[in-house]
Fold:
Amino acid sequence: MSIQQIDFSRTLKDDQVYDTIMNNYSDFSKDWIFHQWNWMNNVYIPFKDHYKYLIVISLIEKTLQFFDQMNIQYTYDQYYSKSYLEIEKFNISELSKKLDLPKETVRRKVIELEKEGVISRNKKKIIIDRKAFNFLKAENQIKFSSKYILLVSKSLNKNNIYNKKLDQKLIENIFKKKFSLCWHWFYRMQIPLVIGYHKLMQDLTTFHIWGTVAMNQVLNVSKHLNTGVNKPSLDYLTTSNILIKNLGTNAGISAMSISDMTHIPRATIIRKCKYLIKNDLIKMNEKKQYVLSSMNFKKILPYQTEVFRFKAKFIRKILNLLIIS
Structure:
């Protein structure tokens, strides 16, 4: 499609997507929380270390940024046909600043990745060897992201903000057709979010565990969030209050269940949950299961609104890409 054929009046702005998400949050909360929980599992599983994977994808994002700047695009199959990725001009200080982590931590993790054969360095250049670790392809994540974007698009359709009618397969296809571009946008959303998770709870494993408790609670109270044909959607504040009060259920989640779901050792989960309880982010019910605390909402609300800004920007780009492609 030539640029003359594009009707730019039909393209979305960030605020339109953000306001739709915030005003209709009950329609999306379950899918978004599962989307992010699945992503955090993918971050943890390859190395059993969130920070190592964060370093790897931060380096990959730099290459994807270069592709974008040079107008070089790879499809899903083309991108994954490469066993090695080469990153130019690598340095610890730049990576430390980007991830908001101490230089000593980044240097130690990079050395560990070198010993494991995942990366190798040649002066300022670094090579990532996908064959050296349990690299997770984006197939499932594309499905999760496409499903969530479809839900948002339907809400935008309903409010006459977005006119293009989509289905999940169409969204998945644009991800795969323009994979290097879309995954650059995806990483540009996720990397700041993960850094924010670290700032919020001082540790990514702690956030991963808290997120698992939150997801369990969402699933348990989801019947209170089903708006139905004649019921209006609930906004972010109302939805969050329902989740916090845990209406209609006393079911929490045990340390063993969290371990089974996340692959994080049970002893680590128990230790991290003590921190979460101390900071009034979760509590233990009468069944000795973990549930959300009423205080967590006040602590997490400022960060969540920032999360939704990143999310809105990513979704807006994908939806606009579908208009002009």
